[in-house]
Write a structure and sequence with these properties.
Number of strands: 4
Structural class: alpha+beta
CATH topology: Alpha-Beta Plaits
Radius of gyration: 12 Å
CATH architecture: 2-Layer Sandwich
Helix content: 40-55%
Largest sheet: 4 strands, antiparallel
Order of helices and strands: EHEEHE
Strand order of the largest sheet: 2-3-1-4
Distance between the termini: 7 Å
Number of domains: 1
Shape: globular
Length: 74
Amino acid sequence: MFRIRLEYTGIHSQLDYLVMDNHTFCACTTLELRGIRTTQSDYCTIVLESERDRSYALLALSSSPLYTVRVLDD
C-alpha cells in the first residue's frame, strides 16, 4: 500500500474538512482519468497501488496551490 497525504493550510472549522475531502476526491478523480487507480482513506489521504503510481501522483498533483503533497511511510 502506497499512500500520499494532501496537507492543506488554514483549517478553521468543520466545514473546512468537507472542503478538503472534496478537493482530495477531485485529486483522486484527476489521477483516475490519467490511468492511476486510487482510493481515498480519509479527508486528505490517497492510497495507490504501486510505487510508480505514487511517484506519478506526486508529480501530477504537486502544482496545486491548495495543498502540499507528502509521501506517507508505510
